Amino acid sequence: MNSRAQVYLFAFIFILLGASLTVYKQQVLGFPLTPGQLDTVWTIEAEVSFDADGDRSIKASLGLPDIAAGYELLSESFSSSGFGFDIVGTATDQRRALWTKRQGNGEQQLYYRLQIAAIQPLELPHLPPQGDDIYLPEWLHAERDVASNLVRRATELSADPASLARQILLLLNSDDVDADFLRRAYQHSSNAQLAQQLLAHAGQHARLTRGIMLEDDRRNLSPDTMLEVWSEDRWVAFDPTTANQGYPRNFLVWQRGDSSLFEVSGGSNSLVRFSMNSNRLSAKAVAMQSPNRLHAPLLDFSIFTLPVEKQNAFKSILLVPIGILLVAIFRILVGLRTSGTFMPVLIALAFIETNLATGLITFLTIVGVGLWLRSYLSRINLLLVARISVVVIMVIILMASFSVISYKLGLDEVLAITFFPMIIIAWTIERMSILWEEDGAKEVLIQGGGSLLVAMVAYLAMTNSYVTHLTFNFPEILLIEAGLILLLGQYSGYRLSEFYRFRFMGRSG
Amino acid sequence: MIGFASKVQLDNFGLLSMNCRNLEFISRYNKRRLYPLVDNKLLTKQAALAADIAVPELIGSVKTPFEVNQLEQILGERTKFVIKPARGSAGKGILVITRREGNDFYKASGSKLSLQDLKRDISNILSGLYSLGGKPDVALIESLIQFDPGLARYSYQGVPDIRVIVFQGYPVMAMLRCSTAESDGKANLHQGAVGVGLAVRDGKARSAVQNGDLVSLHPDTNEPFGDLQIPHWETILQLTARCYELTGLGYIGCDVVLDSQLGPLILELNARPGLAIQIANQRGLLPRLRHVEALQPNPDIDARVQLAASTFDQL
């Protein structure tokens, strides 16, 4: 088989394989070919820590969040080294993670980690309070009078249980004498607990919820408490410190009602702490992580199994072949001259970080000033390696001074200048400078313009949301790209530019 | 239509395109391992001398930065010489000195250079400034061609040289490259030099082209190209045809200069000769190349030259 046939065969196999894998993923695994909306994916880690007593058996439990409200559970995992582990609870009860151990010594840490995606605004479940009994607090005589007084004053200012709860919280947070008395009498109770007891005293159903504010990159948070009161047909939430109504955005309710958030027996100094971070992933990547998908063999060994941070690195790496394909098209089919084969791709990658306009302006300025400085270097006698090294240092100085100047002027975009590949820029300056001396400014404009044109087209392609979606979610497309490039490598026809170059052919007859 | 040529037009001419040249001729007929011989002019010259192929006289070579300081001794009392990189391409880095007064050297254009300037140029060559991929290089110092007065009329400064494409040992197409004021004394067509297509049969001018367009007079010397005929044409065909055996490369461009005393000399060889020769000749290369591909390999140089002279002008 001759070499041409081999190339066609391989190109055909590559393209067929890439296309069929793509179709398989789309049809069978349900990956859509177009990008959907971006979802925020939160990774939250709860850490229960305590000092084990040593001679007693240890039992630690953690209430697990009820994910039904507003979030989709993507995965959860537990660390239970040396501990027996179980999840207890039923569909109606709150689930609890239970760690048990016969004996233990010293500091212990137990982890629970979950990944959730916010899919819709938080909507509270409005199950009515169970039973008609309201647990009445056992007040001492003096406190009961003060409490009654306080409730009466709040009732006068309110219309329904929700506004009553708000008034009670406002009073508790003020320097009112009654509130002050109660706070001092129940030093170990929080405002939320006091408010719950006062509402019970007023004959209203109220409960505490514990949860966390979802904020990116937070560590060692303790849980926040909120107060919920049953008002007519729904639970209304209040922030016990501000008396504001409703849950703040991004508040994840972890646990509701009277059961504790966590319990430890056989240990002391117990504490629960939360850490979290967020990623914005496409809806498909989120769907990907749903536990039921994970066992398709194609996915088990795919980029998606990497840590999210590494996935992000591959996002841009997988775009490079798109740029390379474009360079091949421009050089082989169009006949555009570029300075340095893949320089345009690297420039395009830098443009992605800086955005096009800023990138273009900074690139042109650096190369322009660099060429001007380089023209002096060509008058002094330097060996090539030394000269190109000086140019690299010049480029670094230019980049640093541009950054500083633009930062002082408040142009933060220019700071992304560091994403430009300085060695490539130095070589570009060097080549352009020689080109200028030998072939004149016209040739510099042709090649420089060609490079920039290809870089801009590559930039537009590489930032297109469909292209980024496809390259990242369907890495099989690499095979299609390889096949296309193989085919381009066999193209022996005219370049577009040759129709211009040879336009005078045959004028003499 | 003047803005662009159509595909049919180019096909009718049998135009060899860049992609086609690379894919079907250079990568098929030129073995990679044979490239160094033509890419390095010092090696070419040594091989040519060994094969008794005429080349310009080598005054000396500078291989190390240390030897740069011996430039004065190498030059001796020479007043006319050329400094060039052994691996340069497209005429880059070539310095032509036509006059000397003491240690002041004058280029063809009249600009003055000091000995220090020459040394700087040689250092640049050694450090690989002009070589492909920036590889360290060697500088050659050759005696300046005393170019043939018959051709001098067709050149503004610089040496007019003859480019012959040799395919499988057959000289298939030829042109004369005449430098102009616009090309700054250089013989590169894309810099504005005039390309004159030559008949393979007798070395007579067929058509002349500057910047892609037809011309009939040299723009600076106003000599008509119509009555141009290259002397020693038979020798030139012989010389270039022998370069096939010299290099083993199937598809090469041979650059020939005419010295008034020494006759035709091989200046350099090129394993990736350009396509502009087709514009100068107003003929495509493909029909001639396909014709040769259909022939049996022929080791007889005289027979190849005769076939070339009798056949290719009609294709």
Terminal CA distance of chain A reads: 42 Å
What is the strand arrangement across the widest sheet of chain B? 11-10-9-8-7-12-13
Full CATH superfamily name of the largest domain in chain B: ATP-grasp fold, B domain
According to DSSP, the number of beta strands of chain A is 13
Indicate the radius of gyration of chain B in whole angstroms: 19 Å
Strand content of chain A: 15-25%
Uncertain regions of chain A: pLDDT < 50 for 5+ in a row?
none
Q: Mean of residue pLDDT of chain B?
A: 87
The overall pLDDT average of chain A reads 80
Largest sheet of chain B: 7 strands, antiparallel
String of helices and strands of chain B? HHHHEHHEEEEHEHEEEEEHEEHHH
* Global outline of chain B: globular
Q: CATH fold name of the largest domain in chain B, please?
A: D-amino Acid Aminotransferase, Chain A, domain 1
Order of helices and strands of chain A: HEEEEEEHHHHEEEEEEEHHHHHHHHHHH
Number of extended strands of chain B: 13
Major β-sheet annotation of chain A: 5 strands, antiparallel
Any idea what the CATH architecture of the largest domain in chain B is?
A: 2-Layer Sandwich
Question: What would you note in describing this structure?
Answer:
The complex is a heterodimer of chains A (509) and B (315). Chain A is of the alpha+beta class and 509 residues long. Chain A has a domain at 313-474. Chain A has helices at residues 3-27, 141-156, 161-172, 177-185, 191-201, 283-289, 297-300, 308-317, 320-334, 343-354, 356-377, 384-408, 422-463, 465-473, 477-488, 496-501, and strands at residues 38-53, 58-63, 71-79, 84-88, 96-101, 105-118, 206-213, 218-221, 224-231, 234-238, 251-256, 262-265, 267-282. In chain A, the strands form three sheets. Chain A has a five-stranded antiparallel sheet with strand order 3-6-1-13-8. In chain A, a hairpin with a 2-residue loop joins strand 9 and strand 10. The longest helix of chain A is centred in the last third of the chain and has 42 residues, at 422-463. The mean pLDDT of chain A is 80. The two termini of chain B are 25 Å apart. The relative contact order of chain B is 0.16. Chain B has 315 residues and is an alpha+beta fold. Helices cover 31% and strands 24% of the residues of chain B. Chain B folds into two domains: 7-41 and 148-314, D-amino Acid Aminotransferase, Chain A, domain 1 (2-Layer Sandwich), CATH 3.30.470; 57-143, 2-Layer Sandwich (Dna Ligase, domain 1). Chain B is built from twelve helices and 13 strands. In chain B, the strands form two sheets. Chain B has a seven-stranded antiparallel sheet. At the A-B interface, helix 13 and helix 16 of A face helix 1, helix 2, helix 7 and strand 10 of B.
